[in-house]
Write the structure tokens for this entry.
Amino acid sequence: MKKKVFLAGWDVRLNGDIQCNNYIATQITTEEVVKNLTCGLELIFENEKLVEAFDYEEGTQYPRLLLADEKGFSYPDYQPNNLFQIVETQEGLHQLGGEVPSEFKLPESNSSVPFQYFGFISNEDTNFNWLPFQVHLICPIYLNIEKVFLDYTSPYHPTIINKLEIESAETVYEENIGKDSEIVFEEVKYNFHESLKWSQYGHAGVPIWKQFPKIPVCPKSGKLMKLLCQLDGTLKVKRSKIAPSDDWDEQYFEELDFSEVGSLYIFFEPSSQIACYLIQNS
């Protein structure tokens, strides 16, 4: 009996190691989603063993050469991740941007730039009932960061796990932004709708990597972290205490921007209540 598995992206060695299994669990999705992506992968199994594979590029299928350690790879029994588009609506359960809530406290840090607030994702949405609570989204996006791990044991006062790394990180915006440079983005209410594509703001369900995948493992529980959402910017700035040094730099502070046309990937591990934030650009 033949079975098929579809993956969003193709940057994986199908040898059954931990990295391979984490990739499949995170990137597995539906055939319809893969055919609408820039790149994807179709795996064909017979008698529970991998026998054939196809790369997808802009919806076109190409045969993929299986390496010696990939042939016979066992069928991975994971539930496909649907793609959920951000759809703006005044009745939305979730929020992008807005003022930092009075009851929420940003993490204590001596980093060269502050954390920015990006709104919240509500666990009242049935697609996010795996969350233990409403998650407020924050990240110091103007730092040269690889990953930011935050502990949400106290949901309204998260703390930094890799604090030394964050506080020692540099910024390319040192002439424009300092420790007290506040920036607030326009508030947008939204819901997630199942879709085959993503919106200008971003999406949830399955990450679409701009570079090589960096799927995080929780530093506290050791478990694979689940994508919470991927944000793609375009949110306008409401107000700011940032004074750009010239007209060229001003463009980076007129709207939400992740390292020049990048994406912010947010993962969460519900049992440990740890979040991971990372940025990639094309």
